[in-house]
Amino acid sequence: MTPERFRTIVDAYGADPRRWPDEERAAAESWADLHRIEADAMLAESANLDAWLADHTVAPPERALIERVVAAAPNRRPVKHRVRLWWQGAAFAGIGLAGGLAGAFAVSFFVMTGQPPQTHDSPSYLASSFDGSGVDWSGE
Predict the structure, then answer these.
(1) 80/86 Cα distance (integer angstroms)
(2) Among residues 59, 69, 4, which one has the least CA distance to residue 35?
(3) In whole angstroms, what is the distance from residue 44 CA to residue 16 CA?
(4) Chain centroid to CA 108: how far?
(5) How far apart are CA 103 and CA 111, in angstroms?
(6) Is 60 exceeded by the pLDDT of residue 136?
(7) Do the Cβ atoms of 1 and 32 come closer than 8 Å?
(8) 116: exposed, middle or buried (Cβ count in 10 Å: 0-12, 13-18, 19+)
(9) What's the pTM?
């Protein structure tokens, strides 16, 4: 424990050792015991501030202030609106699930039959440059 660290602890947490950090309390108290005059001066400065802060109280808010704050708060949406949003979300999730199942069914159909779809017989608008078709778009 250094004098600078002791001052930092006293300035931050006050003169009462019960408020000091647990992991540094023993070291700070032992430093204060070894350097009693210097520690007492630092603790006296902080004790005055601690006493002033302990005496200071904040008055509870007036009823009119509470009513103004509550009146200015935004209104919550009615339960009916939240339920409608929940159903819309559930419908969206259901549509996504149905699409996923349809895709899984199509893929499993081709895997089970062992026959991939014939792309060379497909119309030119279904062809792409990756399917190996002989469709040449350069002439158009």
Answers:
(1) 10
(2) 4
(3) 11
(4) 41
(5) 12
(6) no
(7) no
(8) exposed
(9) 0.40
